[in-house]
Amino acid sequence: MGISLTDTAAERVKSYLQNRGRGIGLRLGLKTSGCSGLAYVLEFVDELSPGDEVFELQGVNIIIDAKSLVYLDGLQVDYVKEGLNEGFKFDNPNASGECGCGESFTV
After folding, report:
1. What is the mean pLDDT of the chain?
2. Nearest to 103 by CA among 47, 33, 50
C-alpha cells in the first residue's frame, strides 16, 4: 500500500488535530459525488471502526476504510496555497479522469 503525505500536508494535519484538542488521526475516504463519480472525504477520527486500516505517515495517523483502500493506492496528499485559496490536493494515479471543476474523479 503506497500512500504518502508531503511535509506541508503532514504539518497541516498535525496542526488541525492539535487545535481540535482530541482525535487519533485523519480519515481519508471516498464518497459517490459530482459528475465524475467519486470525491475525497477528510474527517477527524476519535475511534476506529471495524475494517479500518491505520497508516502512520510522518507522525500522522491516516485511517482508511477497506472499501476506499483499493482506489487510494499510490495517492499523494499535499497541502497547497494558490493565491487566496488553500487546501489539500490529491494526486491519485488510479484516477482516469476528473470533472471540469475538479471536485470529483473517476477510476
Report:
1. 86
2. 33
